[in-house]
Please model this.
Amino acid sequence: MSAEQWAVDAADEILDRCDQLAELTSMEGGIERDYLSPQMAEAYKLTAGWLEKAGIATHIDQAGNLVGRLEGREPGLPALVLGSHLDSVPDAGKYDGILGVVTAVAVAVHLAETGRNKELPFAIEVLGFGDEEGARFGATLLGSYAFGGGWRDEWLDRTDVNGVSMRQAFADFGLDPDKVGEAARKREDYIGYLEFHIEQGPILEQRDRALSSVTSIAAASRYVVTVDGMSSHIATPYDLRHDALTAAAEIISAIDEISQQEGTRANVGEISAEPGGVNVIAGKATFSLDVRAGNDQLRDKVFDRIWKRADEIANRRKVSVSHTMIHTASAVHCDPFLRSCIEEGIEQSEGKEAFGLVSYPGHDGMAVAKLLPIAMLYVRCKGGISHSPYESVRADDVAYGAQAFEQAVFDIAARNINVERVQQLDEEA
Ligand SMILES: [Zn+2]
Model:
């Protein structure tokens, strides 16, 4: 059977399996599957069954991630990881994360069934991370941080909406909460990490393309911005006002303008004003700010421009403005070698020149990249919609994706990659 024919058949099965996993939900009439939940245990059972049917060994690691391992040409070789996450946001779609795991399963099973794993100079590990979205405990990437060595025991004290601590949730899941840190993998046991994921944006649709690689997962910083003025009666003439809210409005417009000019992404999603009277000039306004950019320098440049403009606006409007950083993460750059293998796969399956996109959403790869070189394969999703029951993918796109993903594995093997070589490529990059 040709690679194309396999992928066409595999796509139907992949979509059917995404439907099956969507049934394992804690939300009536919708999809929600949380870390360390009974529904996650069911999802692991189902997914492990698909792997085990092809003779691929599975286990659940100390952090509650599902692992399937297919040996290469000899047992015990370092592994290439194919992974994504099996948890979801509340009222989720069927594909964010799930599609990547199910496609990784399809590739591993195909390798096992054709015996081509025995040609590989590395093992394959399928990873279904238990937490990426952070829906249950309000901290994200828990499964992948544990894998990559970034686990922090203080997270165990977090509680879910029902007051269940993470510590208790681990015990209920049959795991020892004091051993989560032991899920951290060793660098020498792995080659790298590949993730297949829906784009969660509209660019592939706009370009009429099924697939792309990812150049980097965006740098992100979040702030709380506070504008201090003075509250007074609506009767106050304009030249005597210290209106915090109109100043905030002007700053927010400037943020939009600057971010568009720089080709980055910014959002102000929350705002409040005090004292909050219809006939009272606002004395204080507070708003959130999230800025994402393909690299750290660009993100920093955008902030420099924003704060400079905010100061100008504040001076002119006789208010003061300050900001507090609440989160910052550097961009994670995809490994050039692994990315070139993904792009080789895209060119073979789609028959068109491959290109890369910046990923503005976060992904497991951010946490895995603390340990391993990573690369990602994006597939078009309808309208760029995600984190919604309206998530949708096309079967022909999934077929292109499955073929490209498998081809990337062969390409890595063909270039006779080994741990030292990836480390060397890492250092060069
Ligand atoms: Zn995801």
The chain has two domains: 3-217+331-428, 219-329. The pocket of zinc ion is lined by residues 85, 96-97, 132, 197, 363 (CB under 6 Å). The mean pLDDT is 96.
